[in-house]
Design a protein that fits this description.
Length: 274
Amino acid sequence: MIFFVDIDGTIRDYAEGIMPSAVAALEAAKKNGHTLILCTGRTIGMIPYDVPLALFDGMIAGGGCYVSYHDRVLRDEHIPDATVKRYRDYFDSIDAPYGLESVKGIFMNEKYSPIVTAILLSGEDPDTSEKAGLRTERIRADKTLDEFDSLGIYATKISFCLLPGDFAKFSVPDEDGLTLIHFTDDFDEYEHCELVRSDCDKGAALKFLCESAGLEGKTVAIGDSMNDVSVMKAADIGVCMGNATDEVKGFADMVTDDVKEDGFYNALVRLQAI
């Protein structure tokens, strides 16, 4: 089998870090001859230090913008600068929280930084936290958009929040070539969203990698979030974690247990991969 494996909420918890049972499952699957592909919405610069990259044969990162197999980079794309600027100008005009994700991490405006700190970093500083997940986290809330501009790097994803009224009016023109991903949550008053290249979602990346690398076999995608839906639909078998929303579970062929209840390990056992 060829396993496409998400990170957050699938093999890793934000606070506790990588799940020991998930590592054991990956090691056993590797030993049994299965192909392992890391499949994350995170850019390379945001992959936590505790993710066992050596166990994976390839990687889909940035929601599909970056694709590699062994030592070969098969795709490395970004959102055109002019398009990024238009959205930045719009978000600035309505004072919306937003950030730009890149190979160097995520860079945020002043309103987005505390949101990321609260939601992804549990309101803590990763450098001083006692939580294993935060100590190995690469996301930092002090990276500004001014720093992004000074580095001259590209954005692979635009993450942002809109108030319900602004979200109701928000649309993405077809000519922009972008897909809007809307996350259902109750963190705060905002609608949490992402913009990614339409030709670079996880599902398209699965097909591209298999074709480019000549991979054959049953494909299995395991994830927990809305940005995993495309890859679950593209795979022969889509597996959803028990901690996912009911909406995401509705797209899966199989639902396993919670990430903190050995859900990933149990899924591979049910699939008879280990």
